[in-house]
Target: Transposase
Amino acid sequence: MLARYRLHDDSLLDLTVVHGDGTTTAAKKGGDNLGYSHKHLKGDKVVPFCDRHCNVIAPFVSAPGNRNESPLLREALPKLTAMARAIGADLQGAIVSLDGVYDCRANRRAIFNRGMAPNMVLLQ
Model:
């Protein structure tokens, strides 16, 4: 948490664009949130948020590897806004850039209701 305060205090955070994406990590020796993913491995899924300069700015949301990433965004957004509030940053008008797996009405509404603009990109 101290590093995020430091980045904000030194004006090194650029929150005009917030990037989010999910990833599945292999759990070779077990763990709390295990599930087989589409990658045929037992693992854990996380959704981190980064600023424009790739600084991780919000806590990870973790889930079993077999969960879909889309619902995890609605769990991660409150943590993103709480982080911004804690350091005194303003996310109003920020663009939330995500890949196409997050593109649904509920996610767009959740982003819009927090005063940010959704930008969903379909990657091929």
Notes: The chain has a mean pLDDT of 78. The first strand starts at residue 17 and ends at 20.
